[in-house]
Amino acid sequence: MEFFEKSKAVKLRSHLDKYLVADDDQIEVRQSRNGSSRRAQWVVEVVEGKERCVRLKSCHGRYLTASVIPFFLGMTGNKAVQADFEPGSQGIHEWEVIRDGFQVRLRSCCGTYLRGNGGTPPWRNSITHDEPYASATQNWILWDVENVKLLDDFDSFSSSVSDDHCAWEPPSPMSIISVQSPMKSSKFQKNSIKFISGMDFFQNAKAVRLRSHHDKYLLAEEDEESVTQDRNGSSKNARWVVEPVPGYDFVIRLKSCYGKYLTASNQPLLLGVTGRKVIQTQPGRLDSSIEWEPVKDGSRVKLKTRYGNFLRANGGLPPWRNSVTHDIPYRTVTQDWILWDVDVVEIHVQSPPSQNPSAPPLPHSDSLDLPYTKSLKFSRQESGDSNVSSPRKAEGRIIYYHVAEEDGSVEDEGVQGYSLVFKGNGVEELTRKITEETGLEGIIVCCRSPLNGKLYPLRLDLPPNNVTMQVVLVLPSSTVAREFEEQGLL
User: If both were cysteines, with which of 17, 110, 123, 396 could 423 make a disulfide (CB 3.0 to 4.6 Å apart)?
Assistant: First the structure.
């Protein structure tokens, strides 16, 4: 609730970096990249008698509501809409705020969550309330909260909007005051984040090495811009200096051997593919793009950006192999790609140890250099490729897939697309696996004929010997699916 307590209006940003906006028809809500629009602002009303519940009122004076209208017949998820307040409506306008790290989930009175949908139309940019059953949709219910506080001129907004709500204009930039970031240290912050914070991995650390689940180290390349993975952990390029961020208890910066910061950029690694580049930069002004929140995950750590993405070590085929991006792992096969082992190679000395008068004096230094120490887990010695075991190969075949549009066309089909590891040969088993990964029900798994380029449903077992395959997913409501039925292919 601290995300909402200090503001009379908020903006909600989904995992797709899109804002929750109220359409001008005063009914629909959707996602949009335009966060500066008045439609992206929601006035907060705390529900009396319910400490963690709020109502959110749009610029049209109507409330964000969990309706009983199905978004799409035969699919899970009901529409989230704008509606007038109805006394005694059993809480359909109320949303319980549940904290999840630096983000929140908004739970309706039905027990479902406000969800920003991705994928192909009609799901793209839609808003529903649903339960994320598939692992691929777990992050679709997480929201970043941008708190804004309206000055006195706009304090009466929430009570004054009525029939003339369309006449309201957004306040000028000078009249909006940003509220203290939720990452800022506070008594509540220390108590609530302690159980997930991974700062223990960096306690007293002056320099560290980060090892991915591929048993490769995060390296700063010699061009002083690129960041990659490499097995040579003894290189100076694998050493990252740890800097605390003043005023923040759970955030760090990482500086390379070239004096540049590990940065979550906005540059896509590859057009049409999720994930943006992680690079080295020396910004003139230190901003949130160089800040990382360590999140503990067992004996390893995840490094989270201010916007909810994670530092990710990519595998697979080039150009993904050895690349480093920041992204959200939607698929089960990539869940471990955001986990890192932390090897402390240099520590801060808090107080000098008592010395034996007969012993030679210790050198005067504020740190101890430990270039060949083992990790905090006391794992194997990392001194090069010869001493590091190769990661185990995934059992099964790699299936690459794209989702077809209504007419069966596929954007960027020449790009590798999404992937999963599949054990088995059966088409039905593969369909169930892809459904679990994507959350798309009733899909038809197809391949493209090399003779005429047309799509055909897969009906025979997959080739033996775990041959890598590329498939196309056709949605059951699409035109091409109806054509399959007419041709007797289903």
Answer: 396
